[in-house]
Amino acid sequence: MVFQQDNAAVHNARLTNDFFQENNVALLDHPACSPDLNPIEKVWGWMAWEVYKNRDQFQTMDALLEAIFTTWTKVPTNLLFLGL
Fold this sequence. Notes:
- The protein is mainly α.
- The protein contains 4 helices and 2 strands.
- A two-stranded parallel ribbon has the order 1-2.
- α2 (40-51) crosses α3 (61-72).
- One of its GO terms (molecular function) is nucleic acid binding.
């Protein structure tokens, strides 16, 4: 069995690594925080930039949520497929 995971330190618990070793699970060597393992990160980054691009300070949670949902409908489709 082969398992692929992000090798960031926060995802490399000793308990998990011991389990893999004891059960002969091979880990694929992969760089930490690799964007191709989690392409949605590009979308979240774009959305945060878009929501706050005018340096808006939202006065209510409803106003912030409205900005988030409006921005979600504007996510460029090409952003969803980058790196896949």
